[in-house]
Here is the input.
Amino acid sequence: MASTAPARGMRDFLPADVRRRTYVIGVIRGVYERYGFEPLETPAVENIETLLGKYGDEGNQLIFKILKRGEHEASGQADLALRYDLTVPLSRVVAEHRGTLPKYFKRYQIQPVWRADRPARGRFREFYQCDVDATGSTSPVVEAELCAAACEAMQALGFSDAVLRLNHRAVLTGVLDVAGVPADKHGDALVALDKLDKIGLDGVKAEYETRGLRPEVADTVLGILGAAALSGVVAADNAAALDRVEAFVAGHAEAVAGIATMRTVLALAARTPAAHQLRVDLSLARGLSYYTGCIMEMTVPDLAGSLGGGGRYDGLVGMFLGQAVPAAGFSLGLERILVVMGERAMFPAHIAATAADVLIAQWNADTAGDALALAHTLRAGGLRVEVYPDADKLGKQFKYAAATGVPLVVVEGDDERAAGELTVKDLRTGEQQRVPRAQAGAYLKDLLTPVASGSL
RNA sequence: GUGGGUGUAGCUCAAGGGCAGAGCGCCGGACUGUGGCUCCGGAUGUUGGGGGUUCGAAUCCCCUCACCCACCCCA
Here is the structure.
């Protein structure tokens, strides 16, 4: 017999999982919509050329490829692939529909993506991303709004300790240039630097040596980037970090411009919900190769990886269109948010609710029709009603209700039928009451209404 | 992709060459109109899979697969 476990890195979502997921998605979508982002969905499958070459060498390897079908399958060649993120499909859509989309296209997209990665904690081969992106503008207002939306979404979910780290690709390049790191070693220098908060200053130095970078270069780079990276989430610290790096890269025009952009983004974001969550982190690098300007990453103390990330990618749409369209975006990682919220027990009680409020017990096979008719009446009154399908012993039926968390059970037996009444038992209190059939709906609703007296 | 660890009942885990077990859960009954509490009874299974050593393997060896941890990378 075949294994019944889902494929490696893939998951089934049972009812309780789906309730938590739809809750989080709903909160995030609500925030995104209040910022004026419009919904977009794109296919799970893209032509493989659309994806190749957009994510760097590492990314290319992690794309789930789909073999050619039919007689060409034996060739082992792939012509399609599952989407790797939502940013590249957006860029393709912007290029494809350039004539009909508005000048500034702000969209959100909450869909699964696939990566042929090795699964780990908070890391799966199929996972949802919650993206917001804005195309058509180079203004730092875009970055400020992205930061604000991401931070507000996290706040709405109940996170009070999320930090949004901010850096700029041109500033990183400038520091490395001025420090004398050859251009072909920039990647190595950034990968090592990105691990600063994990392995510490000495660890990064050691890694610089093994990657063939001169130790004194490491001291210089770390002196200017590393020290700043370890500062707190305070506006004064952010300003001081930028001042320090600006003095270092004084003659490097692109870096100076990048610093000015970061200052503007910080100043604008200070007027938004992101005000107290932004932290300049000059060691932030991010792996995706398409970023060109500001880069951002959302972190919390108790998860090693990030809960989301984003940045400006002014060159990506141009790869499909031949004509540059500026863009920037941010992506919240649903799975990791769920992992942390689960560990911290951050879900509100109401989403644990069961599917039904009322179970109608089945007396015998002949009364099944009556049970369905009663269910219809109660449902029309707004109650969530389940009918027990088999004429099992009442004990079993009550046990089923208790096991599935349905709080109320209705029994219409011979005695009740003769009297035109129903028996209603509240499993939470164990209390039981006979009520006239016509008043059952109101009585049930009354039981379900939380008692407000005393607590309000 | 690299290194280490763990795989035994639905779940959590014992047994470390000699009849595969416990707790919880599940099913049935005590209770033929009522869940939880109690008591009684029952079924748990190719010990992840394959091969080898042995009179005999859950146990020792080899291979393989899955999961966990640390790297690498990422949301």
About this structure: The first strand of chain A starts at residue 38 and ends at 39. Chain A has two domains: 15-44+83-349, 354-447. The domain at 354-447 of chain A is CATH 3.40.50.800 (Rossmann fold).
